[in-house]
Design a protein that fits this description.
By secondary structure, this protein is α/β, with parallel strands linked by helices. The protein has 15 helices and 19 strands. The protein is globular, with a radius of gyration of 20 Å.
Length: 404
Amino acid sequence: MKIAVLGCGTVGTTAVKTLDALGLFSTITIGDINVDYAKKVADSCTCEAFCVECNAKDPEGLRQVMMDADIVLNCIGPFYEYGVPILNIALEEGVNYVDVCDDMDATIEQLKLHQKAVDNNVSAVIGMGSSPGLANVLVKFCENFLSIESVDIYHAHGGESTEGAAVVKHRIHSMEMDIPVFLDGEFKQVKLFEESGRLLEEVCDFPGVGSYPVYVYPHPETITLPKYIKGVKRVTNLGLVLPPEYSELIKGVVRLGITSEEPIKVGDTPVSPLDFAVQFILSQREVLLKKAGFTEPLGSLKIVVGGMNNGKKEKYSFSLGSRGQGMGEGTGIPAAIGAVLMGQKKIVQKGVLPPEACINPLEVLALAQKVLKSTGKGDLPFVIEHYDEEGNKEVIDFKKVFSL
């Protein structure tokens, strides 16, 4: 079985290594504009792997990479720019598809391609990373023992060894847009820098990582979970890129309004304010990481699900967090697992679907456990807490909950 992985940045590299470790695919084709680096990643694989020069803006080049693949895993960002065009090409080529799209507006447009996917007999799972991704399937799992009323998703990460322009552009884009949230059973729009957004801000304790202020994020769980979780009345998504000073730098740039893509002249040279802003932010990153004492990546995902069980209110908190692993692992590993499940015929629905609509969470977690053990990193860094109606807390062994 053959898979094409588009994008070999922080996330794509981890995805390729995970696919290689899981051993389902006989051939991995890596499509990236940076052929030299992609070749190094391909050469590190134990299965047959090779790289092809691939520009996200070149539809015919993308078709060539996908042509002989059974599945395509798309890790090219920012998804607000490339998510819909690349998905469209996969549908036209009739190739099953997985991506890590975390842009709200791109997700809305991708979901509009559902019937096209059905007509072309394609299964397309979008947003199979951490948030969205793992968050969605964990919430869906809670339907086994709760009548779900509320879902609050929190995430924080930072300190990765590298960070590309696409990630920074995604963050800027996320801060500028109207952000849909699901409150009191209705969709509402809030803005990060206005009172509507500030009212949702809070401090979140991420086990193993620390307590940090988090702010509203336009991740797509807030628009997909209400469709697939019957009776839910609240879905929010709050997050932070670490250290907080780095987040504040990006916020400051957005507040200044220097994020237009329309070039201005600096002397005789046309310069895009957005390109300048991104490069300035990246130029300050190492300084801020050093000042904050970050010496390794870290990341955490926390999902708090509340609801009713036998007539009583209950709440569950699921936390995955670790030091030494950040966005690459948090997003790339679930993405690879989604592709493997697709290859194992465990995702059979046709159409464009979010993870909660088509993926069994137990199968995801079993594969994640296998990946971590194969790399010598031990068990999943999972913390599960249960709160009863009186607020009493019980820490639960995740292996008992998930039968791993």
